[in-house]
Amino acid sequence: MTDPMDPILDDMFASARAARPQPDADLMARILGDAADPAPTTQPAPRPSPSLWDRLRAIVEDSVPGGFAGIASLTTCALGGILIGYAGLGDLPLLAGVELLEGQSVVTFDSGLLNEDIGYLSTEDGA
Amino acid sequence: MPERAEDTDAALLARYAVGDQSAARALASRHAPRALSVATRMLADPAEAQDVTQEAMIKMFRIAPDWEEGRAKVSTWMYRVVSNLCIDRLRARRGGTDPLDETNEPADTALTAPQRMEAADQLRLLYTAIEQLPERQRLAVTLRHIEELPNPDIAAILDSSIEAVESLLSRGRRTLATLLAQHREDLEPLT
Q: Rounded to two decimals, what is the model's pTM?
């Protein structure tokens, strides 16, 4: 499906092409001055060739939407899937922290510890 | 020796290498505008873009004696040098602020004054949106849509595959469309 912004973008790019900046006389004079002196003192330091890490980063940024953040999200989801697959759905209580060991459960609340007479709560009229 | 339209870039480099300064003028008039255009869009700083253009031209003059005709297009080599210089500067300035300032673009004399203001506003919106793109998307979009280079040349400049360039362009255009959609009512075509 065509994006309704496409023709607008194309018009804007055409305007940008027509408005490309041109070197002014001062810049051209500087350039031709450099050309007349083939060993300029303003020569910048040579750019080191990209490291393996830089090339890997460029490949990932070009190929994977989201770059390394996308890969990190994907890896987290994959590890989560592996963990669930390993633990199995039958052990969901274990994942939830309800059962820590086989045959042993965590008691989260014991009304008998309140030391109060709450028997009236178990009768309909509260008597 | 006067510049001839049929002179190839490689022939001009060879003439410059043996001391022909008119060849230097011809090379500068061909390549400095391209370098300045890309550097301006990449850096959004006219002064810095001029420095990059000068640096790139210096590199071209220095490589002239060693240039081997047929090894690559000079224009592709030039764009690659400019791209690397811009990326180096963007990485050096990362963490700082990048103010949007005016560019030394020629006025469009075919438009009335109000139309010129409107066109300038639209261009400013586009330039601001381009500045929001990640650097390789920004470079690919600039080379494709403003410099009108074919994708294989862009792939050579970015040292990447054509598929990767297509992906960069697709994501770049999508991001620009999203960023500019909120200004859509201001972006009606000029009449």
A: 0.64
